[in-house]
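Q: For a teaching session next week I want to show students how multiple molecules come together into a single three-dimensional assembly. I've collected the sequence lines for a complex. Could you give me the predicted structure tokens for the whole thing so I can convert them for display?
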Amino acid sequence: MSIPPKTNSIKTFNDPIYGFITIDDPLLFRIIEHPHFQRLRRITQLGLTNLVYGGANHSRFQHALGAMNLMRSAVSTLRSKGIEISEEEERAAKAAILLHDIGHGPYSHALENTIVQGVNHEVIGLQIMQNMNAEFAGALDMAIDIYTDNYSVRFLHQLVSSQLDTDRLDYLKRDSFFTGVSEGVIGSERIIKMLNVHQGNLAVDAKGVYSMEKFLIARRLMYWQVYLHKTVVSAEFLLMNILIRAKEMAASGMELDASTSMRYFLYRKDVCEIKNSEEWLKHFVKLDDYDMLYSIKQWIDCVDPLLSNMCKRLINRRLLKTKNVDRPLSAEALKDLQRKGAEALGFSADEMRYLIFQKSVSNTAYTTKNDSITILYKDGTAKDISEAATIFQFSNLESIETKHFIYFPDEVPFQ
Amino acid sequence: MSIPPKTNSIKTFNDPIYGFITIDDPLLFRIIEHPHFQRLRRITQLGLTNLVYGGANHSRFQHALGAMNLMRSAVSTLRSKGIEISEEEERAAKAAILLHDIGHGPYSHALENTIVQGVNHEVIGLQIMQNMNAEFAGALDMAIDIYTDNYSVRFLHQLVSSQLDTDRLDYLKRDSFFTGVSEGVIGSERIIKMLNVHQGNLAVDAKGVYSMEKFLIARRLMYWQVYLHKTVVSAEFLLMNILIRAKEMAASGMELDASTSMRYFLYRKDVCEIKNSEEWLKHFVKLDDYDMLYSIKQWIDCVDPLLSNMCKRLINRRLLKTKNVDRPLSAEALKDLQRKGAEALGFSADEMRYLIFQKSVSNTAYTTKNDSITILYKDGTAKDISEAATIFQFSNLESIETKHFIYFPDEVPFQ
Amino acid sequence: MSIPPKTNSIKTFNDPIYGFITIDDPLLFRIIEHPHFQRLRRITQLGLTNLVYGGANHSRFQHALGAMNLMRSAVSTLRSKGIEISEEEERAAKAAILLHDIGHGPYSHALENTIVQGVNHEVIGLQIMQNMNAEFAGALDMAIDIYTDNYSVRFLHQLVSSQLDTDRLDYLKRDSFFTGVSEGVIGSERIIKMLNVHQGNLAVDAKGVYSMEKFLIARRLMYWQVYLHKTVVSAEFLLMNILIRAKEMAASGMELDASTSMRYFLYRKDVCEIKNSEEWLKHFVKLDDYDMLYSIKQWIDCVDPLLSNMCKRLINRRLLKTKNVDRPLSAEALKDLQRKGAEALGFSADEMRYLIFQKSVSNTAYTTKNDSITILYKDGTAKDISEAATIFQFSNLESIETKHFIYFPDEVPFQ
Amino acid sequence: MSIPPKTNSIKTFNDPIYGFITIDDPLLFRIIEHPHFQRLRRITQLGLTNLVYGGANHSRFQHALGAMNLMRSAVSTLRSKGIEISEEEERAAKAAILLHDIGHGPYSHALENTIVQGVNHEVIGLQIMQNMNAEFAGALDMAIDIYTDNYSVRFLHQLVSSQLDTDRLDYLKRDSFFTGVSEGVIGSERIIKMLNVHQGNLAVDAKGVYSMEKFLIARRLMYWQVYLHKTVVSAEFLLMNILIRAKEMAASGMELDASTSMRYFLYRKDVCEIKNSEEWLKHFVKLDDYDMLYSIKQWIDCVDPLLSNMCKRLINRRLLKTKNVDRPLSAEALKDLQRKGAEALGFSADEMRYLIFQKSVSNTAYTTKNDSITILYKDGTAKDISEAATIFQFSNLESIETKHFIYFPDEVPFQ
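A: Of course. Below is the structure for the complete assembly, covering every listed component.
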């Protein structure tokens, strides 16, 4: 039995960050009410980060609404500065930002690198948008053009995706609120009031230069303090190894308890491709955090002791310990460590690669190569933020920082 | 393979409300690290409330830590006023408040009234504490005495459970923060600084009387605006009906996909009793939100169209509509409505009782019958808050308010 | 030499409550830049309240800007609901709210009841507006009509002055922020989004009923906890007695150090009247907190020991103590107390009426007689908030509460 | 008549930042109740900054209490880490931080460089402490030793005065709160929980390194965005020129209206010296913001048109405009500009140096030369923050930045 679509007039969403978020456009209603979008309620924005920052259970659903709210505000600011933006363009830009994360699965990073292979959340997201567009009889045409940067008015795309997009302006503020890390607090409203357009591209009024510097710094701090927090990363690697092991067990014929859609990916042998998306996508859009954690809880009782061990660690928060080292261990030293671990834990030395390993983590997310931020002066001239910045040497902010970690169970003595 | 217990010295938990919560006691560590307590990470404090207040995904784990943090603060305040509290009593009071919600299952209210029958979260909680106490060789003796009000120093129990306990002081503040409903903002620290002891019972210094009035009012507002919000309640009734239907289907022999522990309760025929808790409790302590939502998602594809329909509604947030009526419908009028619904939706009139029904909701949680709040004056005299209150007539706050609602699917035209 | 008026394009004001407040209208610029308005920078919103709430040094200037900011927001909300408001009406409503407190002097309540006699801040305010209107060639015509409720569109007046005006919506929030009294925190934005118009009058959408109840309660709490805090009131009575004594000394020919304008009022014998406002008003618009506190500091060294004593108390915060009594003292008992005080302090019994006296304080500011709040339902019907309220019995909120206090110096033993 | 000292038991101060600040020590009471300390209520922390950030009217009184509150918290943290601090040391450290700003006059920077010559607020402060110590019979001995770094336990001095002192930890947070500049928001509590002692000196636990980096950055941002904001600096230079001109007029025999104490400094010819502090200090401790602004308001009507003009500008906020230039003007170019101004305004070219001038502003307050911040690792080793920092290159933060500004009235066309 199909449930017919609801009709609506105006809808208000509660949000602890902005108070109220109001929707008054039927297209935006339909997007939000669509099961694909409602699914985002069940996908946490920060995955396993809640194992370190216990308040960080906020969903991608709420972030998407929040970013749309900032888009509304940005459009209103730009219009007040004489930039023309049509009603249709506003609607399309809002639709684009609502949908910008629609391709994310649960614990996206771990998922994409393990059991969903061949596509990533951006590719998947665009395909989902196109499918929804077909369902909506082309109503998302302009939104998709904006999202893919094929629309003539470039700054609309930049509001959706750039160094200064409403995505970041929302998530930094939101993640800071829910983690309680005050370092990430940014004046999103302040920044939005400073937005302008210069030669068709998004720019920032000169009086906002301090706020921009603060914004870039806050982002960097959030990377090391939250997104790349060593314990968060440790949990993510454990999850990845769980999924890799599960897929290995599935390939070997072991029967694993999981939801229908999760089993589809565990037992699928081929990589996913856009050309055959019809099949795998109908499973993908059913996946959420509940499929993932359900399986991991069930696998505690599975017959493979290694998989069981890893699942028990994740569920009971007995994560792998981490040691920050100046340089990676030699292959030999690592093997040696794995041998010690094998003795302590009763696994084979080969199996220990799931529990003892090394990884390098870089804050690469921070390049200012493309789409850098333009500061616009009252006299109409413009400068790149790296030149306009007055408080910090910008080279500093562009540098890539890499840290090397060794991961190991607490049963293995490792000084 | 068993994972040996970790040793620790000091541990800090991040919390967006209090910033940092610090633990420096090995017993409290052991409680927090116990799988029973870690399970609370996966149980949301407010259940389906996040369908209305999208930020309200906070866990019972974080609430328990927060309440313990307030206990630390309350003990410190009372000591500064000359009340003697030993180290052992402080530890026990903290252990008691940490464990006060340990008996909650996922979506507790719905669970207890449907598939877990015969016991409630308080009975279960006490049993879990006793089991942990056996495991900890009696280290929780005093904590259990405080929890059950069998300890000689009564105000310690009152800090755990009374009209003024650290439970409420935390949850009102926390729920207000995550829902964004500023009406519930209370000055928990302010209230705690006003705590005192009068004739062995918890009391409030007279200068805190306005804060107490505000606290009682905030609680009432939160009831109607959040906990009993009509859409939240509608979602909870839908969930209850899903579970009732599932149990009915299970009884009829239908095979339902669910986790091992969830299946245990679905297919169990007897009520649970403390005397046979050894069996059912080992399943209960594995249940969390993931078992519940996993099943509901899977049951969208089950063969019973009614169960499938209800599950689809909950997952895609197509909840039952609600109509507030001055008095309940007559049995006849309700049946009539169910018949109309049956036609519109293709179910039998009898099945429609799952989708069309009426309920009365009362804010009964608010009686001041027992353990009312004592205001302590500088001259040593004391009054009940209902007499001491100067801003509001207290009778007003004690009244019970009842509202009557009819629930129905949006496909059924009902004005 | 006259300083020619500046020209401006757009101006942004920093505010810790709203972040930014933007002005883009030349008339509003001119008002803000006018010396009469700049004077409000030097008049604290809450007078001597900072002797109890040390953070409460915020100015009437900032409050006026804040209220105007809420007016902008209210106009935008009403327009989004289809209410037509012209550009000119918006400008006039903003001008009216900017100027609504322009007639306040320093420590207004004390001032008006002592040395500025015959007029109050509302009468003075209107006269100042009219003078500015003449200076601005009639540009304030409509603003004055709105302020005086002579404009045809009544809800605009109600946004300036009613139970629900932007004045209160700003000051409750602002006073709460600067005092730190969380009891007064209200969701101003939430309330504003609920505003509507019913039969030409301001109304509140039914879904805002809880917020309205919270707003009325918050106001009442702020009255007792801040505005009528017994120590604040004690300081205000001391200030009034200082001014009365100073005027008495001035009448007796004593030379008192004070600013030119302050001296004008101290030595003036007649009451002020609108018909002769040309003379006294040019002095009034120069008065600010600095005139007042300067004099009081200087008078510490004056030859009248009573005036000196009172001034020293205020400056060094040795305020009169207060005792809350169930009923006022008899005239005889009061005299007796004053005699005791005379002995202890070396003043005459008659002079002691400045230091020992009794007063009754009522929260009369709270009547809902006129202009009560209308709740508007979706079906177009409307109810008074006193009927619509669902959480509190409204009679409760309307009651007048009176408290009786005796004031006395701490040198006088009084149990 | 002298007013005898009050006796007290416990006292609570309201503060919008920390909620409550509690004092339970009679010595600390006596300090706070002393007229010298009460005077700080009438001295704003940020002087003329409120002309740009309208909420920034907070007093030095409130800051001193706030810093003492952080001292309490720091002592408690250090004790919990096993550092021994006696009751007497705690009291003395709190007394020292309460008094650390006691030597500040109104608009200190302007005052010290103009009419109070020969001493600065630090010299004055120490003298006031010594006088109070005499009055308190030596009770401040240890506090003074801590303040002057003559006490054996060095970290107590460092908590009062260093790169990491409770002074900064309070004022950054406080100034950020009252200005609304979120860039300065720092997690003071977080930082305090990270404090430790290494070889007798204050240090920061390694896990606090990000917070320290954020703290240093926030400070730098606050410098440019608030403390050295070009309009704030413009107002301060105007105030200095007013005072210089007034002193010049006083020297020439003109009669200037001012408070007794202000006149003392205006007409005094010699510089102030500690050896003759008995005379000038009794005037200094009476000065507050009210003396200053009173005079400036009165001088609007004085006979010197230049002084009148400058005072009118400050009072009505018609400040000098500023132009940021890459390098200072040549002496000739400046003279030329002053000549143009003289024509436009009717002053002599020489007098125009009060209205047209150039200044360079440097953020020199930021050197890490002495007393740099030490990061303490778990293994007991320590590093300077400049080496330990992982997010920013520290050289960057140490660099001195200088900006050149030309100041001129808006009547003078200057592109």
